[in-house]
Amino acid sequence: AEKNLILEEKITVLQQQNEELRARIEQNTVITRQLSEENANLQEYVEKEVEEKKRLSRTNEELLWKLQGGEAVSPVKSPPASSTAFYRCSSGNSSPAKARTVRR
After folding, report:
1. Which residue ranges have biased composition labelled Low complexity (predicted)?
2. What does the alpha-carbon distance between residue 83 and residue 56 come to, in Å, rounded to a whole number?
3. Which of 10, 22, 31, 44 would you label with 3, given CA atoms 20 to 30 Å apart?
């Protein structure tokens, strides 16, 4: 009978520990979901920033090319150049392979 009481106490302690662990698992699951969502949002933000950086880099290279080529640029009259036209026109260090990056 005494041994049964000791075993019942151990069972009670183990059941309490089990409940605590289940609560921690549930809490960790919630945190994991939140972190996954935040990570996805940050990945989207980084991708947008990368695209903006590429666009600004292309614009910068185009302006440098125009400047080096002695082309007169009128801010009012010059139409925005497409990236395709820019790649066809660019020469020197700037190559389409360097300007484009591979998406994951």
Report:
1. 72-83
2. 11
3. 22
**Tens digit of each residue's pLDDT (9 = 90 or more) over 74-90:** 555 455 554 444 444 44
Which amino acid, 68?
Q
Q: The pTM is what?
A: 0.51
Return the C-alpha torsion angle 60, 61, 66, 67, nearest 10.
70
The 3-class secondary structure across 9-27, one letter per residue, is HHHHHHHHHHHHHHHHHHH
CA 62/CA 83 separation, integer angstroms:
9
pLDDT digits (tens, 9 = 90+) for 47-60: 999 999 999 999 99
pLDDT for the residue 69: 87
Residues 6 or more apart whose Cβ sits within 8 Å of residue 54 = 99, 101
Taking the C-alpha atoms of residue 104 and residue 97, their distance in angstroms, rounded to an integer, is: 16
- Residue 97 to residues 33, 64, 72, 83, 100: CA-CA distances in angstroms? 38, 18, 27, 13, 6
